[in-house]
Amino acid sequence: xxxxxxxxxxxxxxxxxxxxxxxxxxxxxxxxxxxxxxxxxxxxxxxxxxxxxxxxxxxxxxxxxxxxxxxxxxxxxxxxxxxxxxxxxxxxxxxxxxxxxxxxxxxxxxxxxxxxxxxxxxxxxxxxxxxxxxxxxxxxxxxxxxxxxxxxxxxxxxxxxxxxxxxxxxxxxxxxxxxxxxxxxxxxxxxxxxxxxxxxxxxxxxxxxxxxxxxxxxxxxxxxxxxxxxxx
Length: 232
What we know:
Largest sheet: 7 strands, mixed
Strand order of the largest sheet: 1-20-17-22-15-13-14
Structural class: mainly beta
CATH architecture of the largest domain: Sandwich
Helix content: under 10%
Distance between the termini: 16 Å
């Protein structure tokens, strides 16, 4: 079974300096029908104006993954990390027992476009941690590149949840398959372009919740970039 979450049906918040699309209920967007999917709790697509951002704020007991599509984001936290995340880079934080951090667009003229994903951790009270990594484009072109996993396989970021996150950049007409083990689930998010998923059309910003399927067939209708979550 595949249930599509259309891009224009997501929650929308316009704060002037921030325009955000919420796949699941978040902040001022309340949606009891979309509270998450399996361990996925937040799937936000944010666009931040130059020189603006999120002041210091707390998180606890959440796995937070950030991926930059355009622009850059400057991160600072109470663990002593101060980094800039560039397009194509992933950031992961285990909020665990508690962290505080800030996120800003450091550019004076370029907007920031990113996805931020929250997953519920395998257990509460994990020691907080931070990591950041870039993955070679060649390794994700027309193939699924593992970028986050519970065991750090294939050089991926280590997340505290039984979830694998893959990224792929597809050229037009390219075809991918992904097998889903028994009693596991998947979520596909289209970051750019358009694809078909087991024959169903998905456009930029669309997501798809997958249950009781053994295999996914993904075909790029146009050049596309996708993120795939294999979930317990």
